Every structure is written in C-alpha cells, then in structure tokens.
Known about the structure:
By secondary structure, the chain is mainly alpha-helical. It has helices spanning 2-13, 23-28, 33-51, 57-71, 75-88, 93-101, 107-127, 132-155, 164-170, 174-218, 223-243.
Amino acid sequence: MEFKAFRAVLSFLTVLPAGSYDIYTAARGMYLFPLVGAAVGVIVGGMAFGLSFFLHPLIVGLLATGALVIITGVHHTDALADFADGLMAKGGKEAKHKAMLDPAVGSAGVATLVLYFAGMIIVFYTGLSPGPKVFFSLVTAEAIAKYSMVLLANRGASAWQGFSSPFTSAMKSGKKLLAATAITLPIAWFATGQAGLIALSVSIAISLMMLYMSNRNFGGISGDVLGASNEITRLASLVVISSSTVAVL
C-alpha cells in the first residue's frame, strides 16, 4: 500500500516517470509528501552541487530554480501567482475565486513571481557556497515545503470543491500528520542540523499565517493555496539555512 501511495504521490507532485495516478490514492498518501520532496531535493541538489564547482552561484541558482520548476511541472509556481492574484482581487469570496481561476496572470501574480525567482536566485549567491551545503539545503527545503502542504490540508478546510478537496478530506487524521512530521524532522535534522529545525519552525509559522489569510479571504484553502505554500516555505527555508551561523555539512 505504501509503495502504491508513494508512486501516486511521486506522479502527482512531479513529472518523473512514475506512471499514472489516482488523485484519491495520492490524497490518502499525502503524508508521504515530505519523502517525495526529499527525493526531488536529492535530484536538484545533486545537480546544483556538481555545477557549483564550475559555474557562478547566480547561474547555479538560476539553473536549480529552473530545474525545480520543471520537475514539479510548474504547478506550484502557477499556484503562487494565482494565490497572489486572489489575495489582491477586490470584492468578496466569489470575486477572489474568479481571479484565481483566470488563466491570465494579473499584476499581483507577476510581481510575486518576480520577487520569488529573484529571491531563489539570490539565496544561492549569498549563502549557498560551492560544496555539500547546497545539496543538503535543497533536500531539507524540499521536504519542508511538502510538509507545509500536509499541515495546511490537515488544519484547513476546502474553500470550494477542487483539487484541494480530496487532500483536506484524507488528511484530517492526526496519525497521518504525525507520520509526515516523523518523516520531515529526521530529514531536516540529519541534513542541516539546527538550521533545518529553525527553517521548519519558520515554515510552520508561515503555513499557519497562510491558513489564516486564506480563511479570511477565501473561506478556506484551495489547491492554489497548497501550491503557493510549497513555493513560499521552500524559499523561506533556504533563506533561513543559508543565513544560519550554525554549521551545515
């Protein structure tokens, strides 16, 4: 069952050739999100680690960010733009929902994406120097980013029927949240030590803040909120880890 769920989650979260998936199977296995995130971190982190010895950190940041966007099928990046457009849209819940469904990216979405990509590239230049740190930082950040989605699905309710609905329904189990936490904590600790635990704490706070904002603006969470939390907490984790004075392997 766990392997079937893992494969469904891997197929749902990435473009890796894991076969077809059933969204309800992926939802039931959502507690495995951090494990898939760590796997993505290993792939992209390994690439960034190798390139960091030959290319300028800004180029490494650009390539690593691009790889993350591509390997995750651009879904979460698109969700970040929709989330920003929804928050900034004037009017009530229906108006905000309409703005998030609009295939055209609004000014809020564009500005958010520019800031996000700039932040991702700059963090490689300022704090992720050549060596193992860039690898372990990406492994931790990806695991934490996926954990943020699990936390939101557990604590939130769907604002409307959509992609988030199967996940919010399947993740109300405290045991599944505990399982996701049991996966994320060791990854963060063994990969980046105290810096990883600080990054996890910051990301939990950001996730709960996003939950509050989503409840207030949309009446709950949506697939866009989940995807946006992945991008925001990934960047936040990398900023914390790269800025930490605590040694990272």
